[in-house]
Amino acid sequence: MRTDAFALRHLGPRESDLNHMLKTIGVATLDQLIYETIPDDIRLKNDLNLEAPMSEFEYLTHIQELGKKNKVFKSYIGLGYHPTIIPAVIQRNIFENPGWYTAYTPYQAEIAQGRLEAILNFQTTVIELTGMEIANASLLDEGTAAAEAMALLFDVRTRDQKKNNVNKFFVSEEILPQTLSVLQTRSTPLNIELVVGNHETFDFSTEFFGAILQYPGKYGQVYDYAGFIAKAAENEIKVAVAADILSLAKLTPPGEMGAAVVVGTTQRFGIPMGYGGPHAGYFATKEEFKRSMPGRIIGVSIDANGNRALRMALGTREQHIKREKATSNICTAQVLLAVMAGMYAVYHGPKGLQYIADKVHASAVTTVDALNKLGVYQTNSAFFDTILVKADANKVKAIAEKHEVNFFYPDAETISISFNETTSVNDINQIIAIFAEATGKDSFSVNQLANDSMVPENLVRKSTFLQYDVFNNNHSESQLMRYIKKLERKDLSLNHSMISLGSCTMKLNAAAEMLPLSMANWNSIHPFAPVEQAEGYQIMLKKLEHQLNVITGFKGTTLQPNSGAQGEYAGLMAIRAYHQSRGDHHRNVCLIPASAHGTNPASAAMAGMEIIVTKTMENGNIDVEDLRAKAIQHKDNLSALMVTYPSTHGVFESAIIEITNIIHENGGLVYMDGANMNAQVGLTNPATIGADVCHLNLHKTFAIPHGGGGPGVGPICVNEKLVPFLPTNPIIPTGGSQAITAISSAPYGSALVCLISYGYIVMMGAEGLTNATKYAILNANYMKARFEGHYPILYSGEMGRAAHEMILDCRAFEEKGIKVTDIAKRLMDYGFHAPTVSFPVAGTLMVEPTESEDLAELDRFCDALISIRKEIEVSTKEDANNILRNAPHTLAMLTANEWVFPYTREQAAYPLDYIAENKFWPTVRRIDEAYGDRNLVCSCAPIEAYM
User: Fold this and answer.
1) DSSP label at 716?
2) Is residue 354 classed exposed, middle or buried when 0-12, 13-18 and 19+ CB atoms within 10 A define those classes?
3) Which candidate, 870, 876, 879, 859, places its Cα nearest to that of 907?
4) 393-429 burial string, b = 16+ CB within 10 Å, else e?
5) DSSP per-residue string spanning 620-658
6) Which H, E and C letters describe 230-269, residue by residue?
7) Residue 933: pLDDT band by 50, 70, 90 thresholds?
8) Calpha distance 943→947 (Å, rounded)
9) What is the DSSP code (8-state) at residue 51?
């Protein structure tokens, strides 16, 4: 065995397993299986044109050398991004721990109680600091959170405002520039008219439904917004506030001023800048708006024994149900980053956060006092962490960069300096020396921080926050380490067993891909640092874009979208811009097959498109004749088709080229949802099937971990028609010659985690990537062969093969009183996370093993489902007290003195021999979803307070 070949470590099945697996499937060779799975007319004729693969050792040496090209300057740029201190106990035990970063979204709540508690801590932190009533489990970044706030306020307009089409949204000129750009992108297709201006001269006209303010302002000025918000309320204008979360430990929270929504980023809470992300945005609002709230909410409920249990609340807000009526297409959160930010609040507690905020403020005040002595004056009358000084910007910039310091320069006479928790007295003295040199005066030193405040008395926070035990009992490293471990033990992640989620591709996130994320040369760069300081990043990101172009067959890529849903939206907005550039403003019809992923119609609605649903046939394939008829019917206004390939039900539809040709013949473009790209890489590609744009889920096909529901990255790859319309950024220009405005806050989205996909591609090489696809198809078809005879397989290709996933039909078991949910919960007793439940067909399980699971693990999972099938066989509809309907079984049940069930404890806990070696215990019994929705609690308050 080649010990230095990374692909051999990534792929699960060993070469010695192949014959057994192929024989089980009923084919002679792996190539025969691929031939029977993928239509021949879309197979690639040549290998991927990528560089020879590196070994893990070579890659880590390469990435360290490349990282040296990044210059890590002292950063005082601000604008929503700040150097921060990651507590080592959080870095080692969460950020670098596969028990946390390989978990899946907590749809199966009984085996995700640890992560759910960590997110509840995050939500509590946000609620308490903002002074609001309800918060979600995080959003993608501050800019997109602000756009979601605008959309929510648009959705909750009064009846009269909707009737009179009130559509103006006021944006304070103090808003962060990248936030303004995202608001411009998101407002246009919804016909929301943005009016940017000075909040102090705003006229509160009845033409406005909402407004957004920045607190503190983009260059540090702190305003008292209470009067503005009160006057807005009198005129039925609801106000959102984008607030710096650290400042809220010192400043009056916007909730106490009457804000309807408060948004921002939690990057300051121990998350590295990482050249722009990933960072957990936050979103808090009032209880009355909970049903219009975007994203996920973690809520408190009870389990079958009446014990407190956590789960995702208000599931009806999911796009799978609302589809084109959804007010947001967001279907994810930045869970891993939210967990870290919440744990930062747990570790420091209220007094620690106040200390950090006071120290940051004192650093700013001390620097102002010192600069005054040099005759350099700042103009903010009140500030928290950012000062605005008047001086020769070019002269200061040259001297500062010579000393490896970055300030922000709004114009030729103005310099903005943002202080942060890493700022020391030595740093302040360096700043003094820079300005002394620029003004030709003698420098001097300060020895300690000033005590005076530049926050007006009426804006000093009086209310307490974070008084719950969890924020006050975990301040030593031992305490926090044990608390983190306690939560980790309640969660099932990939470090325990396979997670075979169809459409979600839970594959290996190799340690060598993850290690560079902890390197300072990669995680300490500000996204708005001059590009020449980020040479390593620029090389890596351009190479990754090129690699993705080669893999998809396209000409251009943007890495800016920081989730799959953002990628969908970006792709549709590029199509929209293309049509408009040709004068085809009327082209707004989007065809979407009935089987499409729920975010597809939600994204199309947000892009301002009219959605026409096309039929699917009994075998699950697109009804080509219905599609043709609707394309012809709408040919004058046809904008796009959204298609998933292979299909959502795991089949390579042979009519795909005919389908894409129909769209092109009728003036539209084809958007391919790349959720299932793991079955394409190296064997076919979106360009070959006739797509014009696709998004890729780097957190699926390209090995970024799911992190319990995020981070994700959803870049779009486009053909030459669409290259000019790739998105830009207002501070660091990116994108095409006719670029659309920003999709997310940072120029390259979540740039730090792009290192993972870059490393994956570099170490796999062309042959490794192609083999990964072949083995994903091999593993799926091996499992399919083992399941046949036990479970009906809902769809398969023309030669009877699955692509990389398959759907097990469990609907007939309802005759025995067993629902698909019962199977999902029983799998927990066998040590497994359930496959995707009831998507894309209700009452089914969608199974996707990926290429990184070995034969023994595939067999364990198959044995578990086959064993459950036998348990179903002996169930009856009348018997509610059976092993499936009582699942999952907890340790408390098994060790109770009383056992009231008609099966043995051993049958409940150890139905197969392998389980005893590595038993995973669910910590709660089955959760009552309806109870939690009727009694919505999404913070740390004990449930007794709400009963």
Assistant:
1) E
2) middle
3) 870
4) beebbebbbeeebbbbbeeeebbbbbbbbebeeebbb
5) SSB-HHHHHHHHHHTTTTEEEEEEESS-TTS---TTHHH
6) HHHHHCCCEEEEEECCCHHHCECCHHHHCCCEEEEECCCC
7) confident
8) 7
9) P
- Please give the pLDDT value at position 947: 46
Which candidate, 565, 18, 133, places its Cα nearest to that of 333? 565
Separation of alpha carbons 37 and 25, rounded Å = 12
Strand partners, 308: 302
| Helices 18-25 & 751-787 angle (0-180, nearest 10) | 60
Quickly count helices (H) and strands (E) in the chain: 31, 25
Name the pairing type of β-strands 405-406 and 74-75: parallel
The 10 Å Cβ neighbour count of residue 363 is 25
Contact 100, 340 (CB under 8 A): no
What DSSP state is assigned to residue 38? Answer: S
Has this prediction a pTM greater than 0.90?
yes
Cα 407 to chain centroid, rounded: 30
Contacting residues for 292 by C-beta, under 8 A, at least 6 apart: 152, 155, 156, 327
Q: How far apart are CA 722 and CA 711, in angstroms?
A: 27
pLDDT tens per residue, range 723-779? 999 999 999 999 999 999 999 999 999 999 999 999 999 999 999 999 999 999 999
The interaxial angle of helices 142-155 and 177-187, nearest 10 deg, is 40
* DSSP string for residues in 935-947: T---SSS-GGGG-
Percent of the chain with pLDDT over 70: 98
DSSP 112: B
In our burial notation (b when 16+ CB lie closer than 10 A, e otherwise), range 850-866 reads bbbbebebbebbbbbbe
Q: Return the amino acid letter for 931.
A: Y
Strands 610-614 and 589-593: parallel
Give the total residue count for the chain. 947
Q: What share of the chain is helix, strand, coil (3-state, %, to 5)?
A: 45, 15, 45
**Phi, psi (deg, nearest 5) at residue 265:** -125, 150
Q: Do 378 and 388 contact (CB within 8 A), yes or no?
A: yes
Kindly tell me the sign of the dihedral angle through the C-alpha atoms of 345, 348, 354, 359: negative
The per-residue pLDDT for 944 is 54
Q: Of the candidates 807, 805, 834, which has an alpha carbon nearest to the alpha carbon of residue 822?
A: 834
Asked whether the predicted pLDDT for residue 516 surpasses 50, the reply is yes
CA 310 to each of CA 112, 177, 298: distance values in angstroms, whole numbers, following the listed order: 9, 38, 7
Confidence of residue 414 (pLDDT cuts 50, 70, 90): very high
- CA dist 782 and 775 (Å) reads 10
| Paired tokens of 756 | 């993972």
Structure tokens at 148: 């979601």
Phi, psi of 214 (to 5 degrees): -110, 135
471-500 burial, b at 16+ Cβ within 10 Å, e below that, comes to beebeeeeebeebbeebbebbbbbebbbbb
Task: Tell me if residue 788 falls in helix, strand or coil.
Answer: coil
Q: Whose CA is closest to 391, among 369, 410, 405?
A: 410
- Phi, psi (rounded to 5 degrees) for 182: -65, -40
The Cα–Cα gap between 11 and 104 comes to 20
Choose among 78, 76, 83: nearest CA to 421: 83
Neighbours of 750 (CB within 10 A): 31
Name the β-bridge partners of 264: 282
* 73 φ, ψ (degrees, to nearest 5): -85, 160
Judge whether 816 and 840 are in contact, CB under 8 Å: no
Does residue 326 surpass a pLDDT of 80?
A: no
Instruction: Indicate the residue type of 130.
Output: T
